Amino acid sequence: MESGYPDEAQLKGLINSGLPVYGMQGVGKGKDSEGSDWIIKTLQEEDERPPWISVWGGVNTLAQALYKIEE
Predict the structure, then answer these.
(1) What pLDDT does residue 38 have?
(2) 35 C-beta neighbours (distance < 10 Å), count
(3) pLDDT digits (tens, 9 = 90+) for 9-54
(4) Alpha-carbon gap, residue 9 to 5, rounded angstroms
(5) What is the predicted pLDDT for the residue at 57?
(6) Are 45 and 39 a contacting pair, CB within 8 Å?
(7) Spatial distance between the Cα atoms of 71 and 60, rounded to a whole number of angstroms
(8) HEC profile for the chain?
(9) Vertex 54, ends 9 and 23: CA angle to 5°?
């Protein structure tokens, strides 16, 4: 392991999941997830850095967070 790089447990602790559904089936009232709640919490923090959100498994978790913020 590279010195100063987080170990496996630390990296896994940074991962939050969305709903295991396809596309817009995961967006709407009552479709919040650990992942979408985390995105909202992160966007509400006082931090001048831009948020970088990976959407490897699909973008519906991000879409749900934006849906909830708009509501």
Answers:
(1) 94
(2) 22
(3) 999 998 889 999 999 999 999 999 999 999 999 999 999 999 888 8
(4) 12
(5) 73
(6) no
(7) 16
(8) CCCCCCCHHHHHCCCCCCCCCCHHHHCCCCCCCHHHHHHHHHHHCCCCCCCCCCCCCCCHHHHHHHHHHHC
(9) 115
